[in-house]
Amino acid sequence: MKRIWLLVAVGCGDPVASRDAAIAGDAPPGDASIACVAIDAAPSTVPSGPACTANGLPGQCLDVAACTGSRTPVAGQCAGSAAIECCTPRFADGITCDPDVHVQPNQCLVEDAGDPGCPAGMAHVGAFCIDRFEAALVDATTGTPWSPYFPPPATARAVSLRGAVPQGFISQVAAQAACGASGKRLCTDAEWLRACEGPSGTTYPYGDARQPGVCNDARAVHPAVELYGTTDAWIFAHLDSPCLSQEADGLDRTGANAGCVTAEGVFDMMGNLHEWTADPQGTFRGGFYVDTRQNGEGCRYATTAHAATYDDYSTGFRCCADVH
């Protein structure tokens, strides 16, 4: 089952110990009353009700107060009081994720030291610095982690953390702002490709021959099919649920795939999440945890079909910076 982290007291003890414990799956040492505790799954409070259909979508008859977040209530389709409406789209049986809970899996993590001349969490690649890991977000003022399963607030700042769940649901516009808030910038297409291909210009981060299973790039079932329990085309218009990347065998923590690394020590540039670049036409690269073939092989994978304001569960990013 997918593991999440809960903060059980204010503070996190030794930050380095906390980071290492998060990767290893153990609670960190330090003050016994201040720790991050791993559990196997979040408590389920997902409501259920009789089946219904509204606007061509399957749903459940629920109190409107329980139909929130990425789901929509439609009146006149259910028996009972006026407060009972058809909540669409319906999740498949057995789904336990609550789409209204802002899960916080990135508590107690801190950035590694950067390479010489680079900010924390960054690798020196060619003439620039790039985040070693796909970016997560924290509040720019308080440093509080943001739940990576929800679109970010305007106050978000990008961080490059080992062992974090990286931020999805981010647009190119928001990614640029988050990088800027950290004194960095969104990578250009040329920078992103140079970092992924390495000094030898390889097709994949690890070399010129595809190695199945090395990167997180081949989930057998699309997460929308699993979440909604159907292959009907309407599911692809509903990629806004925070539950999509909380399914098992989906989005991995940064650096979890030890072999998915470039010659210069940059992780997960193929698979896991699509990564926005600064291309003004709107481009994200590298594929995601379902596919790294459809729009090009490995590092050459590029999606150009969306505006810079687009986001979904699979869109992430990392930052670049000048060497100092």
Task: Record the SSE blueprint.
Blueprint: E1 4-7, H1 15-24, E2 36-39, E3 51-54, E4 57-63, E5 72-74, E6 84-88, E7 122-125, E8 128-131, E9 136-139, E10 156-159, H2 172-181, E11 185-186, H3 189-197, H4 223-228, E12 274-276, E13 284-285, E14 302-303, E15 315-317, E16 319-322
Parallel strand pairs: 12-15
Antiparallel strand pairs: 1-2, 3-4, 4-6, 5-6, 7-8, 8-16, 9-10, 11-16, 12-13, 13-14
Description:
The chain has two domains: 38 residues, no CATH class; 214 residues, paralog of FGE (formylglycine-generating enzyme) (Alpha-Beta Complex), CATH 3.90.1580.10. The protein is built from four helices and 16 strands. A hairpin with a 2-residue loop joins strand 7 and strand 8. It is elongated. The N terminus is likely disordered.
| Order of secondary-structure elements | EHEEEEEEEEEHEHHEEEEE
Radius of gyration (CA) equals 20 Å
CATH class of the largest domain equals: Alpha Beta
Total domain modules: 2
Mean pLDDT: 88
Helix proportion range: 10-25%
What would you give as the CATH superfamily of the largest domain?
paralog of FGE (formylglycine-generating enzyme)
State the shape. Answer: elongated
**Per CATH, which architecture of the largest domain?**
Alpha-Beta Complex
- The CATH topology of the largest domain turns out to be paralog of FGE (formylglycine-generating enzyme)
Structural class: alpha+beta
Proportion of strand residues: 15-25%
Counted by DSSP, the helix tally is: 4
Cross-sheet strand order for the largest sheet:
3-4-6-5
First CA to last CA: what distance? Answer: 43 Å
Q: Segments where pLDDT lies below 50 for 5+ residues? A: 1-11, 13-35, 37-41
